[in-house]
Amino acid sequence: MSKENSLLKAAWLIAFVTIISKFVGFLRDVCIANYYGAGLVSDAYFYAYQIPSLAIILMGGVGGPFHSATVSVFAKLVNPDDKMPSEKVNKLFNTFLTGSFIFFAIFSVLIFIFSDEILGFIIHGNNTELINLAGVHLRIMTPVILIGGIIGIYYGLLITYRSFLLPNISPVLMSLSIIAIIAFSKGDNLGISLAVATSIGAVLQFVVQFPAVKKLGFKIKPNLNFKNNPEFKNLIELVFPAALSSTIGQIYVYVDMFFASQLKEGAWTAIGYANRVFQFPVGILVTAFLVPLFPIFSKLVGEKNYDDIKYYFHKGVGLLNFVAIPIMFGIIMLAYDAVQLIFQRGEFDSHATYMVSQALIFLSFAIIPYVFRDSITRIFYSFNDSKTPFLVAFSSIILKFILNSLFIEKLGIAAITLSTSLVTLFNASLLGIILLKRINLDYKIYFKNIFKMLIAAILAFSINFVIYKYWTYDTNSWIMLAVKTFSIFIFSMTLYVIFAAIFKIEYVGELLERIKNYIKGKFIRR
Question: Is this structure's pTM higher than 0.90?
Fold first, then answer.
């Protein structure tokens, strides 16, 4: 019970700081949309940003290969309650840091030199103006590539030492730098300010992490002890396939970029905004529960305590699904109104709103398999196995290309996000089947709970859909649009909880019990 309470406290803390981070990220996107809309300049930035994002978010971010490998290895070597790391642990940290710096330095130089050629290969249709503008953005953002993996290692150490606040709040710095620089660069019609702000934001993330890692007792000293180093070899064996897996995920993005460049101007920007809206609730949920769960999984695997792994899996994923399912239905029903409320102002017009909402609706189907896939992947990493997630991801590249080809003519921009949802479902299913060879997680419990939650959500949102259709208001009133959107969602969530209680979904009872105990505790203290 104490472990469970500790997990929930960590989850609440991470959820809180992630909400702040995501909210500031939303303000950043609103700011970009207001000044740049969905057109040539925004497309150039978002095309170029996909490569630096591979380093700063996918590889180096929370949940990325460098963060995951650091947690998986160091969680077995250190005691978070110790005041100072051992000399052996400090040397391993410096060896990993030195190797990462050398790799990313070489990679960033190559990207800088060949930026136009790389973007010319990705962007379909010989659009010289778009390629040149994107190339300028990419060259400015090459420092982000150098910093990415190093930040990931810092994140991993901080999480291992139960320092959850800083890794999850530091992305705010990039968002704030973009907001500030755009606000002071209104006349920059080339949008170069976006790329400059992104690089500054990455540097700031590194700067705030550095003293926190030193405070843990780690001394920064270059170490080239790469040979005959079993712990370092273990790290590389985890990082390399996981990094390849992230790169494979990025290949999905490049496939999407190729198809999006065949569509109307602003299509890639619209897909980017749809992803950001999607990641706001889903990113909070997944980060809040899987970040504190991952070190627990790693420790339990080391102890071969598979019963507790099964318990925490169903507890964590069940709670994630309980919140994720009504969010999915809410997106499907309220996507257009929500996008209009968030983005439609300045250069971002109703046509851009339509494009983003269409992409978002089809992307929402990925929520449930997304949660399952990321949870299962953490268990594979806990077994020091990052090869299996890589091979599964690699196997579906062709599937992604085929699905985009099949849907692009009929569905346009929505084809790209629908194929993403289907590929996510494929990857999640395959990983779940393969994991059965190592540990039986009893998926019957999982599917039984999913079925009950889906029925509760269908009933709740069907009732509220009728209210939604007949609720008329002044279409020029931003306030009335906000009232309608939030009211419908709150009504839907309330009905969902009621139906969930009727169907005796366990998480409702636990939630009500915790609220009851909290109120009792407050009353007794008074």
Answer: no
